[in-house]
Amino acid sequence: MLRSFRWCATLLLFVVGCQGAPEQASHPPAVKVRLASWDDTEKLIASHRGKVVVLDAWSTWCSPCVAEFPGLVKLHRAHPGQVACISLNCNFTGAADESPDAERPKIEAFLVKQRAEFDNLICTEPDHKLFEALGAAAIPVVRVYDRSGQLRQQFDNDDNEFGDEGFSYEKNITPLVAQLLRE
């Protein structure tokens, strides 16, 4: 009897050990990054008609952007097929000796670490041109569009509307998205 128990325990350990780590852990997340102009970004937003769209304009040098980015990832995971999340990186300053994707490795590394498995764009326009297009003085900027493609709200803190803390996914963006999904 004891011998049978040992044999079963050994067999069980062998089978469990052969299965190895889960497949997800052995493969990096499916993060894709591409260059896009603001016009390209607007076309991408329009292509998601029928879904709520959340556009997050951010940069790796922006501490509030980096702190809030996990909220975008969480929102994407919470509403698959209903919410289209788009990250628009604006590290590009437009300096003469700089290309729009000069910081691609840094951007991609951040996105992989965050597991940002949605549309990830690097803006080809200098940051100040993007800020003009967004009507914002600085980032972070998050835009939320309803299912018909209409901009419902832009979150920025240009007028200190959200105080010293600024806006957050938890307090501001996620509740608006939930409301739009009910409409």
Describe the fold and architecture.
This protein has 183 residues and is an alpha/beta fold. It has one domain: 3-Layer(aba) Sandwich (Glutaredoxin). It is 44% helix and 18% strand. It has helices at residues 2-19, 23-26, 38-47, 63-78, 104-114, 127-134, 169-182; strands spanning 33-36, 52-58, 83-89, 119-123, 141-145, 151-155. A 6-stranded mixed sheet has the order 1-4-3-2-5-6, sandwiched between helices. The longest helix has 18 residues, at 2-19. The chain starts with a helix and ends with a helix. Mean pLDDT is 88; it is low at 1-25.
SSE order and pairing:
Blueprint: H1 2-19, H2 23-26, E1 33-36, H3 38-47, E2 52-58, H4 63-78, E3 83-89, H5 104-114, E4 119-123, H6 127-134, E5 141-145, E6 151-155, H7 169-182
Parallel strand pairs: 1-4, 2-3, 3-4
Antiparallel strand pairs: 2-5, 5-6
Short description:
With 183 residues, this protein is α/β, with parallel strands linked by helices.
Radius of gyration: 21 Å
Looking at this structure, what is the CATH superfamily?
Answer: Glutaredoxin
Secondary-structure element order, as H and E? HHEHEHEHEHEEH
Instruction: Give the helix tally.
Output: 7
N/C terminus separation: 65 Å
Structural class: alpha/beta
Helicity level, as a percent range? 40-55%
| Portion in beta strands | 15-25%
Could you give the order of strands across the largest sheet? 1-4-3-2-5-6
Principal-axes geometry comes out as globular
The biggest sheet amounts to: 6 strands, mixed
Q: Ranges with pLDDT <50 over ≥5 residues? A: 1-25
What is the annotated CATH architecture?
A: 3-Layer(aba) Sandwich
CATH-defined topology: Glutaredoxin
Please count the beta strands (DSSP E, at least 2 residues each): 6
